[in-house]
Amino acid sequence: MDPRVALLGVVVISTAAFVIVTPEVLYLILVAMTLLAILHKDALSRYRGGVKGLMGMAALLGTVQGVLTHGDPLLSVELPLLGWVSLLSVEGLMTGIRIVIRVTILLLSTLLFAATVEETSFIRGLRGMRIPVSVVFSINLVLRMIPRIIEDMRDVDLAYRARNISPAGKGYFRRWTRFVSLLKPLLVRYLRSSSDLVLSLELKGFDGKNEIFAEPESLKILDMISLFLLSAGALLLLLHGLGVL
Amino acid sequence: MRVVELKDTAFCYPGGKVPVLKGLELSVTKGEHVGVLGKTGSGKSTLLGILSGILPGRIGGVLSGSGWVLGEKLPVPLEAVRGSIGVVFQSPEEMLIRGRCLEEISFSLICRGIGHRKAEERARNVIRDLGVSHLAEKRTSDLSGGEAKLVAIASALATGPSLLLLDEPTSHLDPRGKRSVLSTIERMKNMEPDLAVIQVEHDLPSLANCSSIVMLSGGKAIIFKDPDEALMDATLHEAYGILPDPLVSLYRTAVRNGIPVRAAPRRGLLREMGAALSGRLPRVTSEERSIPKKTMSVCLRGVSYRYPGSGCGISGVDLDLGSIHSLSVVGPNGAGKSTLCRTIAGLVRPDSGKVDIRGGSAFYLFQNPQLMFFADSVSEELKGRSPSIERVIDRLGLKGLEDRYPQTLSGGEQRRLGISLALTSGADLLVLDEPFSSLDSAGVNAVWELLEKEDGPPYIITTNDLEVAGRTDMLIFMIEGKVVRTGVPGEVLYDIGLLRRAGWPLGGAQLLGLRSGAGPVDGYRRLEERISRYGEAPDGRRKGKTPLEGPLPAEEVPI
């Protein structure tokens, strides 16, 4: 799919997930996104580790929302330390489920975009949307650097273990102190390599103004149909938001 | 016609007290391929910096002397020469900017105002001529180290430069990667006969095809118009702290022992030695190896590990390492050597299988030791280490660097600091990932001496250097995440079928061993010992000279 259409798709679907209140439509979007995810399950497999953590957070968010929503109580739980009584209602349960569904839709649409749109065509697509060269080039560099930074951070973490250096504290605090202490060596490393990168760019003749990105390819019939459907969806959302529908 | 002319050139880095280069005289003509040698800190990369205009223009420093590069007077203005000079940095994989290789190669053309379609067409022509068309649509983030260097060379060549500067283009590559880069350079020279190439190297055999050699020492350049004069003289290498070429060392030993070998050019030498030594090298068996005092005790059963999101890792590794002091892990880049070592060191928890290290702790030295430094100075990094620290610092040449911030040390200095951390860690097992990479001759010798000291802990090293591997008690060979062969180096390094399967060019010692019918000899060092006993037949009786045999097959002659 053309990256511009895919990007528009992410925006429309994510907005729809948080604007639409009709549960049936929400379920329909979830089913559609799940089917798409199944179709692209191989491409999505590399995000499996990250998805687990994010879904955990979505579940936590849903639980909190569910507990905080008032309604006819189904179950009451007393928290012994604070003396609070927590009530779980049907409304709360449904709110919690909807929150999880919304976050899931947002997550699936973003992951599908990341997994199916190639970095190169995404960059071309951004330029095709008339975003300035300097901005697109910066995004290009950031995308190139992200995997390297993740890999380096993993290695530095291993190096801590290899040298048997354990920052004080436990659990999250320990992780946090470990993260902060590795920032300095990583920063120095990236400052050094970024100065090499700048020299390399200069030797290649890049001056920040050159039109270095090729024009994106013209839209194919499938892209046109998707664009039409997405535009229609966006219009419906707008009308829904204005209270016309 | 000259493209480079330097007269009495000196350069001093900002804040530096001693000039890196002084009184340097150098001239390079059109079509010349100049190899630059010198120990760490001799000014090899500085010379490239001056020629490309990076020094002093972009980094600072004081440059004196006269001369010109492509008609531009010193100091060379980078803006004026950047279209005519191609530069390939030491780690080009970190300099790749675009997503696809073809985009990367056409990038510098587009920056010069050439239209996208024309630039792409030209980039396609360049990679086709260099024989690397298969890389065109590959993602730059998926390239191996060797492939990244090929893309960087193609990228530098795309603009049609008159001068190409290559900074250690074969470093950190396995033999297959080295061969690929060197043959690409040869193809490039055939494509552009007028192109002058200056190639900085640590590795002597990688300069075998140069038309002249420049040896940097004490800031000055010694020029050898006949490359064999520089490449074949082991005394010279020793004097200038250059890593010796094992084949040249063998040649020296052979001559010392009265073996009739001419000082033929490098390739011819191998053939000569093979013929002269034919039938004269006594067989060495694994029983001859003595077992040092401290031994490792490592056991792996069905160990597998896959990196999340990629297919790389190790698979079904079974190893029982006991009664040996040293082990080398050999294999092509991406074979899983580092993963195996990390698993042994307990840094990677296997997906399946069991790792059992009896007898204490293991210290793992990363291939990139820079990631292991957390303190603000070298002395702080080494604070509170074992009592042998002073000796290690002295031997590894870290004296005088105590106040430096470890992240700003050079690659070789960081490696030495990493090794000193390992040697003084007090661990019962050292696991060292490519410990000899980026070290000059003095560094390599010092590390060997410290590793092989009497009371030293057992160690495991990963390496692509068969000479290094030949010095350990045991060797395991890995291909695509699997251990495909385990044994004493003398046996594994002679498994020609295995080496061919891994795309490994045969080494000089192996060819000599094969041609002489000497059977397994475990590495150059052992072979050298055998040569010292030249004339003794395997059964110990002295025999007369045997006639010369036919030439070696061309494809078996190593680069």
Compact summary:
With 245 residues, chain A is mostly helical.
Q: Assess the beta-strand content of chain B as a share of residues.
A: 15-25%
Supply the number of structural domains of chain B. Answer: 3
User: Sheet with the most strands of chain A?
Assistant: 2 strands, antiparallel
Number of domains of chain A: 2
Instruction: Spell the H/E element sequence of chain A.
Output: HHHHEEHHHHH
Instruction: Count the beta strands of chain B.
Output: 19
Q: Which regions of chain B contain 5 or more consecutive residues with pLDDT less than 50?
A: 281-289, 514-523, 535-559
- How do the strands line up in the largest sheet of chain B? 6-7-8-3-9-10
> Can you summarize the main beta sheet of chain B?
6 strands, mixed
State the shape of chain A: flat
Helix content of chain B: 25-40%
CATH class of the largest domain in chain B: Alpha Beta
pLDDT average of chain A, as an integer? Answer: 81
Quick tags:
heterodimer; A: 245 residues; mainly alpha; 2 domains; 9 helices; flat; B: 559 residues; alpha/beta; Rossmann fold; 3 domains; six-stranded mixed sheet; 20 helices; 19 strands
Structure description:
- The complex is a heterodimer of chains A (245) and B (559).
- Chain A has 245 residues and is mainly alpha-helical.
- Chain A folds into 2 domains: 3-117 and 215-241, no CATH class; 131-204, no CATH class.
- Chain A contains 9 helices and 2 strands.
- In chain A, a hairpin with a 4-residue loop joins strand 1 (73-79) and strand 2 (84-89).
- In chain B, the strands form 4 sheets. Chain B has a 6-stranded mixed beta sheet with strand order 6-7-8-3-9-10, sandwiched between helices. In chain B, strands 15-16-17-13-18-19 form a 6-stranded mixed beta sheet, sandwiched between helices. In chain B, strands 2-1-4-5 form a 4-stranded antiparallel beta sheet, with helices on one face.
